[in-house]
Design brief:
The complex is a heterodimer of chains A (306) and B (598). Chain A has two domains: 100 residues, Beta-grasp domain (Ubiquitin-like (UB roll)), CATH 3.10.20; 139 residues, Fumarate Reductase Iron-sulfur Protein, Chain B, domain 2 (Orthogonal Bundle), CATH 1.10.1060. Chain A has twelve helices and nine strands. Chain A is of the alpha/beta class. Helix content of chain A is 32%, strand content 14%. In chain A, the strands form three sheets. Chain A has a five-stranded mixed beta sheet with strand order 2-1-5-3-4. The longest helix of chain A has 18 residues. In chain A, strand 6 and strand 7 form a beta hairpin. Chain B has 17 helices and 18 strands. Helix content of chain B is 36%, strand content 17%. Chain B is of the alpha+beta class and 598 residues long. Chain B has a domain of 141 residues: Succinate dehydrogenase/fumarate reductase flavoprotein, catalytic domain (Flavocytochrome C3, Chain A, domain 1, Alpha-Beta Complex). In chain B, the strands form four sheets. In chain B, strands 1, 2, 6, 7, 8, 9 and 16 form a seven-stranded mixed beta sheet that branches. A four-stranded antiparallel beta sheet of chain B has the order 15-10-17-18, with helices on one face. Classes of the chains: A alpha/beta (306), B alpha+beta (598). At the A-B interface, helix 1, helix 2, helix 3 and helix 4 of A face helix 3, helix 4, helix 11, helix 14 and helix 15 of B. The complex binds flavin-adenine dinucleotide, iron/sulfur cluster (SF4) (2 copies) and FE2/S2 (inorganic) cluster.
Chain lengths: 306, 598
């Protein structure tokens, strides 16, 4: 079989005609036959995709016809498009199961995970648009520069527990960690950041508001039964919880189902208000609930973490 | 040498999964100038997908659990082929690593006493998996990521290493490219830690992402290091089978740990028909006994659904072959008829979500369809147990890319502990080595230029092979001929087909430009996919027996002679050579653990 493979050259399958300009591939040499089956779509279904192609200097929606199978998700169709027509189409993905938060995009204008968006949701006669997240600068095609999020994350003072119990273990009741476990389900897809109008439409606000993802992170640390830092001055100050006007758009798009507004942001707002406008309540809380907390007012520094 | 972005480091960690991050944290804490590179964004490595938990003999649920029992389970699960010292270190140190993770912010599920809760998993005598619902890997990677960020770690995201560099046989650094710009970058480093994970993309049905092209295995091999146990690939018994687009995505073993059972098309709990003599003493032999075990583990034996993965995967394979499979070529995994909906949703939230969203199946009312999927490679870089040092000075490996801990079959939950325990040890040893080295090894500029030129070659070819097609063809050869059941004839055929594929790989062509170009990225990983595929097929052909993750239809039984050796692979003058290496001898006090009556 090995020798047959090198001798016999079949005609090329449909080599798509492409223009260099939109970043397509060159014509391929005739694909050599493989003794094994290749993936073929047998459903006869086809869909029109309008995919945003371009980079920081600009771009536009490019139309493609792509076959698909029953049960597929948008990401499958994007992969098929890359494998057969547009090999340099930039897209991020990893788990293909809604666990890693890599494949965020705006499909028909809605911020979603491409790997969890089934084709059956769409009318096959209508084109589907697939665009990158708008809140972040474009790198290429569906890939955006999400470094804003990593920068904010680096400014959040980390978990700071006291010493463990004498046996070296730590004790917390399940009911006391249910809420923070909800927050820790965040897969960092940044769809909430994408949809939050405070930073989506106002680049300048990114300096003033950390965005819903990091309200979730801050709430998690604030509500951790074993944490000893008081981040409230920061939450009010540089992370800007007051900028949020509770539109709940973030909660609606969160693929992890985190109740971002109700469970994280509103309680944070209350805590911050308490601590600034009600000294008695604040004092009471300090004494009864978090006796060991010390306020932090500046970004965390490397030496403190070591 | 052309102008190239250059970074000088003591320790370069390749990989930002659990193993890489834990290694980097340790190396940095020991004062080494440390950098981490990873192919995806930080926090997206495979570790994020791990579900069930971290096996650690903490004794929170079963006070009788201890490292000796865990050690014994690991060795037996690996059919006695594991490196005893690694299994011992892993069993002894993982509990501390879990507590450490907690002190860095991980929030595990709790026992009624408020301690870290532990769940049952296949092959583990006691409930010992520390977990967070079914998203333990997310908790682990986020905790390590947050820790690393708080330390001010330098992380090079979306940056892919293509070759390691040597200076007189020692590690000198690595050449990588930025995915975003396609520009190259040179790391001059005294020590390199490989933490690149696995090889799952060598198979068609797999639980792995695009990252799993065996880069670390190949980087090590090309740098002159040895690989070991490459014939042992784990096919997880329960991957999704329907719809086609999700085929291979994992269904966590916790479904079975929490009460789920496997049934064939005749509704029979067929695992009772496949209990091997090796495990008969500790496995229930009736449904009644098995069902009592969930509530009274002291007086009943465990259900056969919780046998080690190799046993369950083979059984499913046999049922399907015998025509007793489910409509889409799997079997049924049923928890719906056995646990109430509330329990299922609380214990298995992401499975519930996964089936609901991807397959339109409500697992609280309907059985799942599942079948084997390529999940893990036991084989990898041959390392020293205590230091994770590979056979090239300055090179270290930890996590899935390293060999030794799991022998011929990994127990569920033993990977996450592996990452923490050996990640830490690799970071420690690499930092020490780098400090001891003094001067920075020299990098050969001409070699760097040559690596860059060959990486750019696919752009030069006017016509050539489509990398996507080539990858698919490699996967098909491996899936069809080197899969879960193997024969001499098919393995020989696979090696012939791989030779043709290797030749085709020299003709890969890509279009577009260097900016974030997945076609080009894939083209650059084809060589390493082919290298690991050849290693797997070569070692599988030589092992004329069935053991753990390696099943030979023509040699269906384990063989005494093969019980004493590991297969070691290395390149000599560009040719892959295989050697039989006798197993290291276990000291008598550990051997005694296998003689006691359990
Ligand atoms: C769905 C699923 C569920 C699982 N559940 C469990 C479980 O419950 N318990 C358990 O113990 N184990 C489980 N496992 C196995 C375990 O998760 C993996 O074996 C483990 O996470 C591997 O970790 P790692 O650190 O070795 O590699 P990974 O986490 O895969 O990280 C590899 C890193 O290396 C980088 N890399 C690779 N090549 C290069 C290169 N050339 N250049 C630069 N960077 C590179 C990648 O970008 C990535 O950052 C599961 C696995 C899967 C897929
Ligand atoms: S609720 Fe607040 S954080 Fe969420 S989208 Fe609206 S403004 Fe943004
Ligand atoms: S909070 Fe939800 S939407 Fe926001 S990043 Fe996390 S998972 Fe995504
Ligand atoms: S690929 Fe991981 S969330 Fe979509």
């Amino acid at each position: 079989m090995a020798d047959a493979t090198t001798e016999e050259v079949r005609a090329a399958p449909t080599g798509q005609a492409r223009q260099e300009g939109d970043g397509a591939a060159r014509a391929e040499a005739p694909a050599r036959p493989s003794p094994r089956a290749r993936p073929e779509v047998t459903s006869g279904r086809e869909v029109t995709l309008l995919v945003w192609r371009g980079d920081a200097s600009g771009g536009s929606f490019v139309e493609y016809r792509v076959p698909y199978e029953e049960g597929e998700v948008i990401l499958d169709v994007i992969h098929r498009l890359a494998a057969t027509q547009a090999p340099d189409l930039a897209v991020r993905w990893n788990c293909k199961a809604g666990k890693c938060g890599s494949c965020s995009a705006e499909v028909n204008g809605r911020p979603v995970l491409q790997c969890m968006t089934r084709m059956s949701l769409f009318d096959p006669r209508e084109p589907i648009t697939v665009a990158p997240m708008k809140t972040f600068p474009i790198v290429k095609d569906l890939v955006t520069d999400v470094s804003f999020n990593y920068e904010v994350a680096s400014r959040i003072p980390p978990f700071s527990p006291g010493p463990p119990d004498p046996d070296g273990k730590r004790r917390m009741a399940q009911t006391d960690v249910d809420r923070i476990q909800e927050f820790r389900e965040c897969i960092e897809c940044f769809l909430c950041q994408d949809v939050c109008h405070v930073i989506r439409d106002h680049e300048e606000n990114k300096r003033l508001f950390a965005g819903p993802r990091f309200m979730v992170r801050l709430a998690e640390l604030e509500m951790h039964p074993l944490d000893n830092l008081d981040r409230r001055p920061l939450i009010r100050g540089e992370f800007g919880v007051v900028m949020c006007n509770i539109t709940k758009c973030c909660t609606e798009v969160c693929p992890a189902g985190i109740h971002i507004t109700d469970n994280a942001i509103i309680p944070l707002k209350e805590r911050v208000v308490d601590s600034y406008f009600d000294p008695i309540a604040w004092l009471g809380r300090k004494i009864t609930r978090r006796p060991r907390r010390t306020p932090v007012t500046r970004p965390w520094s490397a030496e403190a973490a070591s | 040498m052309a102008e190239i972005e250059t970074h000088d480091l003591d320790v370069l960690v390749i990989g930002a999964g659990g193993a890489g991050l834990r290694a980097a944290i340790e190396a940095m804490a020991r004062g080494a100038r440390t950098g981490v590179v990873c192919k995806s964004l930080l926090g997206k490595a495979h570790t994020v997908m791990a579900e069930g938990g971290i096996a650690a003999a903490m004794g929170n649920v079963w006070p009788e659990d201890n490292w000796q029992v865990h050690f014994r389970d690991t060795m037996r699960g690996g059919k006695m082929l594991a490196n005893w010292r690694m299994a011992q270190i892993h069993a002894q140190e993982t509990p501390d690593r879990v507590l450490e993770l907690e002190s860095w912010g991980a929030v595990f599920d709790r026992t009624p006493e408020g301690l870290i809760n532990q769940r049952d998993f296949g092959g583990h005598r006691y409930a010992r998996l520390a977990h967070v619902g079914d998203r333990t890997g997310l908790e682990m990677i986020r905790t390590l990521q947050q820790r690393a960020v708080a330390m001010g770690m330098e992380v090079f995201m979306e940056c892919v290493v293509v070759r390691l560099l040597l200076d007189q046989g020692r590690i000198a650094g690595a050449v990588a490219y930025w995915r975003e710009s396609g520009r190259f970058v040179l790391f001059r480093a005294k020590a390199v830690i490989l933490a690149t994970g696995g090889i799952g993309k060598a198979f068609r049905v797999t639980s792995a992402s695009w990252e799993y092209t065996g880069d670390g295995h190949s980087l090590a091999l090309w740098a002159g290091a040895e690989l070991m146990d490459m014939e042992f690939v784990q096919f997880h018994p329960t991957g999704m089978v329907w719809p086609p687009s999700v085929r291979g995505i994992l269904v966590t073993e916790s479904v079975r740990g929490d009460g789920g059972v496997l049934r064939n098309s005749e509704q029979r709990r067929f695992m009772f028909d496949y209990i091997p003599a090796y495990y008969a003493a500790e496995t229930a032999d009736s449904e009644d006994e098995a069902d009592h075990w969930y509530d009274d583990k002291r007086n009943y034996r465990r259900p056969p659904e919780l046998l080690p993965r190799d046993e369950v995967a083979r059984a499913i394979n046999a049922e399907v072959k015998a025509g007793r499979g489910s409509p889409h070529g799997g079997v049924f995994l049923d928890i719906a008829s056995r646990r109430d909906a509330e329990y299922i949703r609380r214990r298995l939230p992401s499975m519930y979500h996964q089936f609901k969203e991807l397959a339109d199946v409500d697992i609280t009312t309907t059985p799942m369809e599942v079948g084997p999927t390529c999940h893990y490679v036991m084989g990898g870089v041959r390392v020293e147990a205590d230091t994770c040092a590979a056979t090239v000075p300055g090179l270290y490996a930890a996590g899935e890319v390293a060999a030794g801990l799991h022998g011929s079959n990994r127990l569920g939950g033993n990977s996450l502990g592996d990452l923490l325990t050996f990640g830490r040890r690799a970071g420690l040893a690499a930092a020490e080595y780098a400090t001891g080295l003094g001067t920075q090894p020299k990098v050969d500029d001409a070699e760097v230029d040559a690596i860059i030129a060959s990486s750019l070659a696919p752009f030069e070819r006017e016509k050539g092979e489509n990398p996507f097609t080539l990858q698919y063809d490699i996967q098909s050869t491996m899936q069809d001929l080197v899969g879960i059941i193997r024969t001499e004839e098919e393995l020989r055929q696979a090696l012939e087909e791989l030779a043709v594929l290797e030749e085709r790989a020299t003709q890969v062509a890509v279009g577009g430009n260097r900016q974030y170009n997945p076609g080009w990225h894939l083209a650059l990983s084809i060589d390493s996919l082919l290298a690991v595929s050849r290693c797997i097929a070569t070692a599988a052909l030589e092992r004329r027996e069935s053991r753990g993750g390696h099943t030979r239809d023509d040699y269906p039984k384990p063989d005494e002679e093969f019980a004493k050796i590991n297969h070691v692979l290395r390149l000599e003058d560009g040719k892959l050579v295989l050697r039989r290496e006798p197993l290291p001898q276990m000291p008598p006090e550990l051997q005694a653990l296998f003689e006691e009556d359990h």
